[in-house]
Amino acid sequence: MANPVSRPACFQAAQALLPQGWARDVRIECADGRIVAVTAGAAAVAGAQPLGTVVPGLGNLHSHAFQRAMAGLTEVGGRSGDSFWSWRELMYRFLDRMDPDDVQAVAEQAYMEMLESGFTRVGEFHYLHHAPDGRRYADHAAMAGRIAAAAEATGLGLTLLPVFYAHSDFGGAAPLPAQRRFLHDIDGFAALLDGCRQALSGQPDAVLGLAPHSLRACTPEELQALVALAPGPIHIHIAEQLREVEACLAWSGQRPVQWLLEHAPVDARWCLVHATHLQDAEVQGIAASGAVAGLCPVTEANLGDGLFPMRAFVQHGGRFGVGSDSNVLIDAAEELRLLEYGQRLALRGRNVLSPDGLSSGRWLYQQAQEGGAQALGVPAGLAVGAPADLVELETGHPSLQGRADDALLDSWVFAARGGAVRAVWRNGRQWVDGGRHVHREAVSARYRATLQRVLG
């Protein structure tokens, strides 16, 4: 698939959400996909690409792209004790059917949908490394290369997070047979990182990090070695399930986040994904560390995980971003909506997170945009040095009609469904026009063919 239209050197937005707030008549000048100047109150210049209402693209900080293919296939009642753990067994069986071609086709569909919803970069928490029988491909990074190819084909920014997975439970327990496609030792993982660097070499703004899957999946010694290898952001699943917390207590006498904060150099490079089940000291500890809490409200609701203690976290100055995780539903606004609504239900109030006088939609969007950028290793916002990742809202949408400034973001997050995103420019190129990805037909055709084979 060819690239869409060439990059314009300049955009002219009727209004834009800058880091300091809304501004009118905003000229955004770019070079090689990066913003080099932002001027509010500027007269239009010849050749500038005209835009309406523009907000910075949102980072999706946590995705397992291949799981898009099983969305909706695990919603059957009647299984006793159905939970995350029973869902995981179904997921293991599903992924055994997928080869590299399948993984790329599914990732392209997921990444296309992310762009159409307003996400402009993804943190791909990538753990499907090996062949179905567990043998390594001749190219150890073959699967990672397919993820990189899917991001390049669809235009989505990529922060690749190859996952280290060696054990089935705390204390170095032997892995399960169903986990054979994930497994590495430290030397093999170092070789995988080298292969990932090569796979990303054609994408100048791609970022490489790594992800210890969880404290269940690596020993303390392995975690220490991984931190030393880390080329960028470090992401980890943690404290998602009560069973995990109980197992960590039995192993170490400490809760997962408590143990991590005391035994690892957690700082602003880290993203603690889910971190659902916390005590007050852990909430304060994450906030003080500068790490980002990676929240995935749609998936956490789908799996019955529980609710992150969001209000206490933000009161301590904690940073957060959102991700689509299992990709059961890909929708940037929906993640923010459910994040707020979950807290309203738990606290039995309205507008429970944003500071006094600031709209919930604006606060959620900007905080998640800044936290997501930090977790994905890129500059944030419509500012000099940041990528030219622009989302143009469809102000003619029934739910956005007659709105301006913060009311637009409130209405997008809380009142709009499909069609609220008109266009998306990623790294200065347009990939979504009229709400549709420029390669939608080709991507969806390939995805349908893959599902017919995998599900057949």
What do these coordinates show?
- It is a single chain.
- Helix content is 37%, strand content 21%.
- The protein is an alpha/beta fold.
- The protein has two domains: 107 residues, Urease, subunit C, domain 1 (Roll); 319 residues, Metal-dependent hydrolases (TIM Barrel), CATH 3.20.20.
- An eight-stranded mixed sheet has the order 3-2-1-4-14-15-16-17, covered by helices on one side. Strands 5, 6, 7, 8 and 9 form a five-stranded parallel sheet that branches.
- The protein is globular and about 65 Å long.
- The mean pLDDT is 94.
Brief summary:
By secondary structure, the chain is an alpha/beta fold.
The strand line-up of the biggest sheet is 3-2-1-4-14-15-16-17
Which stretches are low in confidence, meaning pLDDT under 50 for 5 or more residues running?
A: none
Query: Would you tell me the overall average pLDDT?
Result: 94
Tell me the β content: 15-25%
Count of discrete domains: 2
So what's the overall shape?
Answer: globular
Could you please say which CATH topology of the largest domain applies here?
Answer: TIM Barrel
What would CATH call the class of the largest domain?
Alpha Beta
Biggest sheet features: 8 strands, mixed
Strand-pairing-aware structural class: alpha/beta
Count all strands and give the number: 17
Quaternary status: single chain
CATH level-two architecture of the largest domain = Alpha-Beta Barrel
How many helix segments?
Answer: 14
Terminal residue distance: 27 Å
Cofactor: Zn(2+)
Protein name: Formimidoylglutamate deiminase
Keywords: Hydrolase, Metal-binding, Zinc
Organism: Stenotrophomonas mori
